[in-house]
User: What shape does this take?
Amino acid sequence: MHVRMVTGGVAAACLLSLSLAGGPAVAAVPDTHAAPPAARVLTYDASGSAEFKSAVDRGAAIWNESVDSVELRPVASGQRANIRVLADNGWPRALPAGLGNGTVYIGRQAVDQGYNTVRISSHELGHILGLPDRKPGPCSSLMSGSSAGTACTNPYPNSAEKAEVEGNFGGALAPTRASAVHAGVIVD
Assistant: This one.
């Protein structure tokens, strides 16, 4: 995408230079490749995630590496976050408040039982991005959550999960229907 923009800009500058220098007028060739839509930016506040802050940041980075239609960024000072991430002593859970908004709890109970903190973070953020639990499921499915067992440390969404998030946020890989996000508690 960046190469096309730079190339198009260079071509336009060359044409302008030629026309200003009295060179022959040349019609610009239109770019037939439309630029992909910009990612929807969602901010998250991990200030209440205590010892899990680095796991939350890594979970957000994994989603940023995995999909193009949404980008998770730490909230700027004084700004209201789309997603609040908190640590508590319960089981991990998400409380979606509409697509891309809600609260995530990184529960110490699952961590104490041996579940991977980055997988928990990535999984719970997946709920805020519109993905449901898919239990029981294999370790290759991020949204299989705890049903994959404590030995599973895979924090990456599979291709179907990526495509579903792309569809939820209108990305280029959008399937024909988007997931419905239901308000309520999703306990994993």
In short: The first helix runs from residue 2 to 20. Helices lie at 2-20, 53-66, 108-112, 117-128, 159-168. The radius of gyration is 21 Å. Strands lie at 40-48, 70-74, 83-88, 93-96, 102-107, 186-187.
